[in-house]
Amino acid sequence: MNFKALSKSFLAFLLLTFAALVLVACGGSSDEGETSDSSNEGAETEQSGDGGEKAKYVVGTDAAYAPMEYIDESGEIVGIDIDVVNAIAEEMGFEVEFQNTGWDPLFPAVKNGEVDFAVSSITITEERKKEYDFTEPYYVAKQLILVPEDSDVEKFEDLKDKRVAVQISTTGHEVVKGLLGETSEQILAADTLPVAIGEMINGNAEAVVADNAPVLEYMKSNPDVKFKTVEDDSFEKEYYGIMVKKGNTELLELLNEGIKRLKESGKLQEITGVEVD
Ligand code: ARG
């Protein structure tokens, strides 16, 4: 091989190497969508690693309800409900972004599409089913009464002559209205459960009625507060569901399939610690 031929083949080699490098670089950059999600904030779909589109849903919640949904020390929305939704999303291959809307605003937010769905320990009720669609239940709960340690309250009936704090528009609010009357002035309806409990701490209320898990969590994380809980057989089982806009069948089916798979694999019970019958 003479010098000319040699330099020609060397040039060809250089060109090939360069072309290969360009290919590798391009291939690499098409993967970037997977990791950089700050660039598509608010996007409905996201480029996934294999080039497919991943749907992204905005999920509303009232993150003042530990252990179900709350803000941790780093300011992140966490909790059992959040874990359930994240597990469904992973199972079904979509992305989620949580938004702390608060409790009362959560319902119109689902209705007007501000959020795609809601997870917030929401009890599936006949009343709510008229206006929203719910997934299959993923959690079962009951009301629980919280009173000061020296209270004489032994059952729900004993609240007849008491001032009772609740979180507004919750099932706890409903059962207390059932006992004291729809417009009773003995009822203190607060925006959040922590505020309702605060009403009892500062002496404005003599009892709180709310879902068992957050009441028990409150007792656990505030051992210095002298409260006790009272159960009552008249409280019915309540089933939590994920709430979507009425008629959004596609999303409902996606979520239901996720719940079904998590039930079958035992993952749901692993996350919640509760068996849904
Ligand atoms: N389960 C009750 C209801 O649906 C209370 C839920 C309140 N949830 C919350 N995150 N504050 O009415």
Keywords:
single chain; 277 residues; alpha/beta; D-Maltodextrin-Binding Protein, domain 2; six-stranded mixed β-sheet; five-stranded mixed β-sheet; 9 helices; binds arginine
CATH superfamily of the largest domain: Periplasmic binding protein-like II
Give the SSE string: HEEEEEHEHEHEEEEHEHEHEEEHH
Extract low-pLDDT stretches. 13-43
How much of the polypeptide forms β-strand, as a percent range?
Answer: 15-25%
Q: Helix content range of the residues, please?
A: 25-40%
Characterise this structure.
This protein has 9 helices and 16 strands. Helix 2 crosses helix 8 (249-265). The protein has helices at residues 3-29, 80-92, 106-111, 126-129, 171-180, 193-201, 212-221, 249-265, 267-272; strands spanning 45-47, 53-61, 64-65, 69-71, 77-78, 95-100, 117-118, 132-134, 139-141, 143-148, 164-167, 187-190, 207-211, 227-230, 238-240, 243-245. With 277 residues, it is an alpha/beta fold. The chain folds into 2 domains: 54-140 and 239-272, Periplasmic binding protein-like II (D-Maltodextrin-Binding Protein, domain 2), CATH 3.40.190.10; 143-236, 3-Layer(aba) Sandwich (D-Maltodextrin-Binding Protein, domain 2). Strands 1, 2, 6, 7, 8 and 16 form a 6-stranded mixed beta sheet that branches. The site of arginine has 14 residues, from loops.
